[in-house]
Amino acid sequence: MGKVALISLVVAALAALLGERILSFRKRTLASRELVKNHLPNCVALKNLDAGSNDITILGNGLAFISTGLKFVGLPSANTIGKIYTLDMNDPRMKPGELRMPRNFDLESFNPHGISVYVDPSDDAIYLFVVNHPQQKSQIELFKFIEDDHSLEHLKTIKHELLYSVNDIVAVGLESFYATNDHYFNHEMLKVWVEFLLGQPWTNVVYYSPEEVKVVSEGYYFANGINISPNKKHLYVADLFDHNVHVLEVKDDNALVSVKAVSVDSLCDNVEVDPETGDLWLGCHPNGWKFLMADPKDPAGSEVIRIQNIHSDKPVLTQVYSDDGHVIIGSSVAATYGGKLLIGTVFHKALCCDLK
After folding, report:
1. pLDDT in tens, 30-57
2. From the CB of residue 243, how many other CB atoms can be counted at a distance below 10 Å?
3. How many other CB atoms are found less than 10 A from the CB of residue 134?
4. Cα–chain-centroid distance for residue 191?
5. Residues marked as catalytic
6. By CB neighbour count within 10 A (0-12 exposed, 13-18 middle, 19+ buried), where does 342 fall?
């Protein structure tokens, strides 16, 4: 075989391989899915949240914490610094208020992602854990919420080699938590091109405490949202690219044991859990290809899915809300309180709707 023929054969083989990988990735992102709108009544956009509302968590008293201003390579983002807001779900004005940040904190590089709230049972003090990506790195910021001053006190920054690409977090103690790593590689080009095209289940869940840090679950295509059951016996992890939610049992040594995976037929982002019913509420991307392309003429849609009785043999999945992107783009989280539904997004606005 001549040199030119050999080169041509190699080029053709590589092109075929690349084509197969792109087709596989399009399938994994549900690129061909067309969404039928399923709106809720009385949906209004929340003020001050035009730079996204990537994660939302609501306390039992109706106080919601919201992270905004997330910046990701390759995705639209507002030219603004990251912020944390609160929203009193009992206040009919439904106006989010920005939390005052401490002076000893580097606000210019603040790039908040997943958040979790821990309430100390000894004194009801509220602690906020925030995944932060300064310069696209990963670290966890621990704050104490000062209610009287509507501010945050920065307590510490947590870094560890196992916390290298953190997406979401669920606090289980004053300084302990579980976190998802959504990528295997650290380099941005490897993350965006190589890892997505290879499409391998290489991501994981990490347990962190001051005494011990360890990988406790792995084999996810894109470990994303994470949360815990009301009785603290199970964790729920959304695998974005495998279109399912994993149920994991928490052991006495903080290890996790897989119980099952529930298919959701969507790219679900964050997971919120109703503290009374145990229902899971998921903010999802119904067409991940459109989300990644970020074409303003063909925007990515939004979808909210509710899972009831997830531990039963027949969990009940309900599409509570869906939109083709002309109202809300790229839903990342859904949280409920008092008959209201908050829908947050990666880089778009946030909605508050009445549940049917």
Report:
1. 999 999 999 999 999 999 999 999 999 9
2. 19
3. 15
4. 17
5. 113
6. buried
